[in-house]
Structure formats: structure tokens, C-alpha cells
């Protein structure tokens, strides 16, 4: 997969929480974040209540040659979510930078106990990311109780904060933008045809230019599903804070379809053709474990310290942009 810069969150590729930046997009530099593209309807008013469940999701994003493009770790701690967006260190060898010295991708074997894994059951809590160290580029903290999202830049060591109402306003401005519509109406109002194949368990949302194929696992606890898609919805909306990223609306349709089935995603494949006729493909694989480890608790404590210590900056400074948006 060419011309792709890693930028991803746990909602998957494009979800995720994504994060990939597509160079040459009709929306200059926009990216389709799977961790970024999730929503059934825009949430208004107070944040919906969800039970204080604790679980973790590890995500790996592969290009069409099956090379790992990105990884993320998402920790759900009741009404707060901590999403670590990572790049691997050189040669993926131990010793790379971490969040305040905490290794994000280390094995949780012996700490997790039984749980529900996104690609089968995983009693040890291990995934293909186990025992590998990563450099954390950014941590996104979603405090649903306070209706606030904070982005922590691990290299610049500063933060950007935005409230739910302000972010919803930015999403609405994006969809109403005549400038963006002139470039590509499809990405603002995508029309995808949904189908489901019972023998393979594969969900597909398709169009001539963009398609998703997804697999999922029915969660035993519906409150976990509610927490996941609450996170995924707001992760999607964060794309509106960066004029280099693709609009979230296609992925939102996929997440709505998965949520109706009570799924936690295990695999999501994206096939996208941009206006230059360049075809881009990526696959996100998710591994879910229904508890947090002692190391996860350390990671959360480290991030909570950063929330207090990092100075707040404007959106334009945080995104390194000359303007806050392109609306």
C-alpha cells in the first residue's frame, strides 16, 4: 500500500481509533480513521450512561502486503477511555521511548486471566503485539462523564482539549462545507450498500469507490458494546479537528451496522479508490480482553499525571496547521 502515512486509533484503520493518512486524497491530506469513523446518530445533550466496565483492545493495521503499518492500545476504564497511538521503534527491538517509561506493548501473560479476545479466546491476554515495544506518539483521553476529549502529544509534551458540543459543531460544519462538497461529495454523503454473508459471518458495506468487509464477535456483555461504540463515535468525530484527514461518515455507517449486531470488531478491511484512481487497501485486526492488567493501571496513572502537567495549546498549534480547519 503506497502513499500511506501511519495515523491510527483503536477504532480501527480508517476506525482506527482507527488512523492512516492518504496522500493525494481529494481532501488534501485527510485520512480515514477507523478509530475515527463510528456513529449511529450524533449524540446531543449529556453523554449516555454506561456501566463502569474495564477492558482493553489491541489493534494492528496491515497494508495489502501484510506488513504492519500501525498499532494502538485502547484502555476502557468506566466512563474514561485512554487510546495510545503508536509507532514501532527501529527494528521493533526493546528499548524504544515509551509513555513516561512505561512500555505499552509488553506481554500481559500471567496478569490477565480469562477474557474475551477479538480473534478467539485469549486467556493469557497475549496478542501478536506482545513483548514488542512501541513509541507512543499520542494519547487520546475521552472523559465521557465530563463530555471532554484531551489529546496528549508525547513528543511536544503539550495537550489540546475540546468539549463534546464544540466537536459536534465542527462535524456539522464539515458536512455543510461547500468547499469540501466541491472536492468530493461522496465522502460527505457516502451511499453504501449493506449485506451479510451467514456462512462466513462477514458484514460488507460496498460502493463503487469504497468498501468495508468486517468480522466481529458477539460480546457477552451489552454494556461493553455500548462503551466501545461510544468511544468509536467520538474517535470518528475527531477527524473534524484536522483538515488533513478524511471525513468520518462512511465508517460511521459501518460502525452502526456492527453495533446493531452486538459485535466487537475482530477484523475490518478497507478498500478505497480515491479520485486519482489510486487504490488503497488496509486491514485492522483487533484483540479484546475483558479486564485491565497491573501494567495497564500504571499506564493510566502516567497519563493522568500528563493531563495535569502538559500545558494546553490551541488546535492550530497542536495540529501544526496554519488554519484550524478548511470549512
Describe what this molecule looks like in 3D.
There is one protein chain. The chain is globular and about 50 Å long. It has 327 residues and is an alpha+beta fold. Helix content is 22%, strand content 30%. A hairpin with a 2-residue loop joins β4 and β5 (80-88). 46% of the residues are buried. α4 (222-237) packs antiparallel against α5 (249-260). It has one domain.
Spatial order of the strands in the main sheet?
Answer: 8-7-6-5-4-3-13-12-11-10-9
Q: How many strands?
A: 13
Radius of gyration: 18 Å
Q: What is the count of DSSP helices, taking H or I runs of 4+ residues?
A: 7
Q: What is the string of helix and strand elements? A: EEEEEEEEHHHEEEHHEEHH
Strand content: 25-35%
Oligomer: single chain
Query: Mean of residue pLDDT?
Result: 75
| Uncertain parts | 1-51, 90-115, 117-131
Cα end-to-end separation: 29 Å
Q: What does the overall shape look like?
A: globular
Biggest sheet overview: 11 strands, antiparallel
Range of helix content: 10-25%
- SS-based class: alpha+beta
| Number of domain modules | 1
Layout: helices, strands, pairs:
Elements: E1 4-6, E2 20-22, E3 54-63, E4 68-77, E5 80-88, E6 134-143, E7 148-153, E8 158-163, H1 164-176, H2 178-183, H3 185-188, E9 193-197, E10 202-206, E11 210-218, H4 222-237, H5 249-260, E12 263-273, E13 279-289, H6 294-309, H7 315-319
Helix pairs in contact: 4-5
